[in-house]
Amino acid sequence: MEQKTIKRNPPIATLEHKLKGHTGWVKSVAVSPDSTWAVSGSRDKTIKIWDLETGQCRATLKGHKDQVNSVAIAPDGTRILSGSNDATIGVWDAATGKNLASLKGHTHFVKSVFPLPDNPRALTASTDETLKLWDLVSGKCLKTFEGHGNAVTSASVNSDGKRAVSGSYDKSVKLWNLETWQCLATLEGHSNYVNSVQIAADGRYAVSGSNDQTVKLWDLETGTCRGTFEGHKKDVDSVALSPDGKMAASTGCTDNTVRLWELTSGACLQVIKSVDIFFFPTAVNFSPDGKRLVVGNSADNDKQYSLYIYRLTGVTAAVRDVPD
């Protein structure tokens, strides 16, 4: 059953900036640890660094030979990571934009890259049906995780770097122990491709978005689905958790909405629609300070593909457990 939307005045998210510059779909967005700048990866094969206060593009990073599917920022803010359809992972100096390394090992598209909290390592997911754990200093692959039966689309690591979740076209979400390198659980319930996952900072919960038009909340301790959030009319392309752990955001490129969900009740808190007729949101992320929501868009009327920056109210940076 579709959840009702709770009317709030003022709304949680209010449009602050619309940033233009990419010449292809924006596939992924990430926000710096200090919440002052963001990065975006695009089908135009580039990564852009944006100043969130001014809305200006600081730099454009070039080097990938195919579209950039995923971008992330190291916990210390010094490095930008990227995953591409050219099957490589890019490591970039955030201050200078210099390409520091190009990691090779996946045999097909790299769909997701996620840095571990210890900075020198990262977890990647690929359509070659594997995840890989990398040492960013040596550039070596430390471990290859196998078990999914189709393309792995997304991966996320908790704040202590010990647990990870992954989503796949095999319709499942898997929970991994990164210390023992074991799969702890396979979470089933989606009826179509899982496009995006995120694990809570404490590792207790995770959310997933799927082509079955739903967002699911998973209890990773019990291996059960705690809630199914319905409302999107088409595929759910991207999900994100607020830094205080109380809210999830999801994008529906083909239903032209971003939705904000309350995790405890499953209620839809806001449906974000744009006055622009070319609003096709593909990627979403919260700033760590809880003050902004960054949304990547897949189309515009002047071939300048956009980011939408929303100012948030009522979201804090503190990480808290979801109440039982």
Describe the overall structure:
With 324 residues, this protein is mainly beta. The protein has a single domain, classed as Methylamine Dehydrogenase, Chain H. The chain contains no helices and 28 strands. The strands form seven sheets. The protein has a four-stranded antiparallel β-sheet, with no helix packed on it. A four-stranded antiparallel β-sheet has the order 2-3-4-5, with no helix packed on it. Strands 6-7-8-9 form a four-stranded antiparallel β-sheet, with no helix packed on it. Strand 4 and strand 5 form a beta hairpin. The radius of gyration is 18 Å and the shape is globular. The protein starts with 12 loop residues before the first strand and ends in a 12-residue tail after the last strand.
Describe this protein with a few key phrases.
324 residues, mainly beta, Methylamine Dehydrogenase, Chain H, 4-stranded antiparallel β-sheet, 28 strands, disordered C terminus
Fourth-tier CATH superfamily name? YVTN repeat-like/Quinoprotein amine dehydrogenase
**Could you please say which CATH topology applies here?**
Methylamine Dehydrogenase, Chain H
- What is the CATH C-level name? Mainly Beta
The parts where pLDDT drops under 50 for at least 5 residues are: 319-324
> Structural class, judged by helices and strands?
mainly beta
Strand content: over 45%
Report the average pLDDT across residues. 93
Strand order of the largest sheet: 1-28-27-26
Percent of residues in helices: under 10%
Biggest sheet character: 4 strands, antiparallel
What Rg is obtained from the alpha carbons, in whole angstroms? Answer: 18 Å
Label the overall shape. globular
